[in-house]
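Bench log, entry 3. Co-assembly request; chain sequences pasted below exactly as received.
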Amino acid sequence: MISFDVGEDLEAIVEMVKSVADDVIRPRLREFEDARGLPEDVLQQIHELGLTTLAAPEDAGGQGLDLRTACVVAEELAAGDVGAAVAISGPGPAGWALLEHGTDEQRKRLLEPFAADDAWARRGALALLEGAGGFGPDAVGTTARRDGDGWVLDGKKRFVLDGDTAELTVVVAVDADAPLGQWDSLRVLAIEGRPEGMTASEPHLLLGLHTAHYCDVELAGVRVPGGNLLEADDARRALGRTLARWKLENAARLVGCMRATSEYAFKYATERETFGKKLYEHQGLAFMMADMATEVNGARWAIWRAAWELDRTADGSQPSGGEARQRAAIAFRNAIDTSVRITSDGVQVLGGHGYITDHPSEKWMRDARTLGVVNGLGLDDDRAIAEEVLR
Amino acid sequence: MIDFELSPQQKKIRDMVRMFTTNFIRPYSLRADKEKKPPQEFLDACAQFGLGAGAVPKDVGGEGEGVGEDKDPQGESQKNRISIIGSEEMAWGDPGVVLSLPGPGLGGPPVQFMGTDDQKKRFLGIFGPNDIKWGAYALTEPGAGSDAAAVRTTCRKDGDHWVLNGHKFFITNGAKAEWNVVFATVDPKLGRAGQRAFVVEKGTPGFSVLKIEEKMGLRASETADLVFEDCRVPAENLLGGDALYDGSKQGFRGAMKTFDATRPLVASMAVGIARAAFETCRDWVKENYALSQHTHRFHRIADALGVMKREIEIGRGLCWHAAWLLDLKRANSKESSMAKAYTGGMVQRVTAKAIEIMGPDGTLHENLVEKLYRDQKVYDIFEGTGQIQRVVISRRIFSQIT
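Structure output for the full assembly:
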């Protein structure tokens, strides 16, 4: 039944997250940006609220909540500041990979440590990207070579979020003994801790998202025990769904960012006067702001629709997974395009004031552009949507 | 909880409407455009399948299925969600023919929102399921389009009648309608507070049709100029009776309340048009590029199709949200306008792109996209232009902040 009602349980979570976003994150966003990370007290608070392990299964100490919940929470947190939302701890995209790959035993073993009371700084990472961006079997050069009971990883992964500190790094590699360029040749392996041969660069200094650590990770003969090979019946479906979840979580953050910059601009427009009128009374600006509000809503509903599609097929009931992948591509690609436009408009409403760092608008414009591309996904999404419709 | 599964009844209606449009609208679409009238095959099918009273609820005498009054599994009305799912499908079949669907049409909502029980029975009750009859909604004037408060048609009480004088413009089905809901003012100086809404029945003395307009598109739909010269309307045809207008802006508010329901409906028609153009274009690409899928040109086309598909989905989401709010009886003026504003621009972009992708073929009269491009433009104009929607949206945003 078509419903946009988040329901009472999620409403309560949203209220909680909103107070963190408004009272803890928003007032300190420049402090976090300068420090290039969230401070202990904020990480601890977010962990204590259970926001780091929302989607982890209950038997692994998590809350077992669905993707819709994760997206609503991600938007709400990012409405405080998108940089902070990306920089929180927890298993992150490694958690998404574990929901789609591996066994219950692996999920429990690898995710449980994130639920411990003192695990507030523990992070997971997904080492996916190589080269210039984009993902598919052709884009993986990192090799996984079978060695006795285990595997040996060699290669270089780029722009890995939390690649420098992650205690769980899920790596997508290609089996050295299997044919290149095929989904079935890909191996998904979980690295625990920081083993020998694994080195990370300093966090890159990017256009935006200074609060988050995107690093290159080098794997030189890194040994992974056989029990950490995360298998899936259908490699393309499982990886597609992992990326779809990751895309939607980031799309929701982009919507949070759009909402933040819009609401900030709307409020400014009621305070600032020019030519004897408030800014919002100038129709040129009022129309622009009407479009901003419309596109924020449109972007959110596309995410919810896609998240619902992924949730409802999480039990494997839709073997191909094409519909879910397509919906995620639609939502993600749309969030990327609209967030770039709207964060620019957010600066525009403030005029010169938007360009200086006294206001957060310039930061959100940099953050949104960065988040839309830094995961290396999205550029191929329109093509992916078209492939689905031309099938 | 957030959910996008159609209820069994929504599915049933969607499938029924899809079957109907595929068989009785789409095949006659191009011909209807040339003949400038709804195809007889379509009208016959409407009578046969009893679609004439689809929008008339049972409790006011409608004999149709009364689809709107059935509750969703959560016990809420699903009327508006069902309506927009249906109107998307209908407009997919043909955007001009869909406006000729028998029934009270846009005149239905004001009678329902503002009318007394007796008026609802008298005016909505005449639409039997197998009848081919129309109702119409006459607000626009030569000098009052989006600015509904500028209505200059006057009304004056004279004994047990009201006397109307004025000119109504761009009235869909206004000439063939059994009745028109006509907005007039007791005194233009009073602005919105002076407005009254009447049901003017066919054959009322002083009511005449000046002409039928020629249009760029939507040619299958009748657009009439109506003239009221000392038109005497019985007092019992004043919607809601005198009591409704005591010192309030009720007349105008009635007009606005209608928009809350009709804007998502019209917006979802724009989604249907865009989908029709998209699918036509997609099929054409499949056929014409079967052997050249590795060319740069094909890749550019594929990307463009991806963008079109995205924009259609965003538009549908906004429509569904506005209709859901209305079903739950929550304020939805802003969201209705968002749906209307976005889809009005979206359908222009999508249909224009469909023509571009098909190249010179896309401009041929025999290809549906040529017609759809002409048809779609008015979706950013009627029921409030895109600019009016932005006025509504921004006013709502800033009335909440200030």
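The radius of gyration of chain A is 21 Å. Chain A touches chain B through 48 residues (CB under 8 Å).
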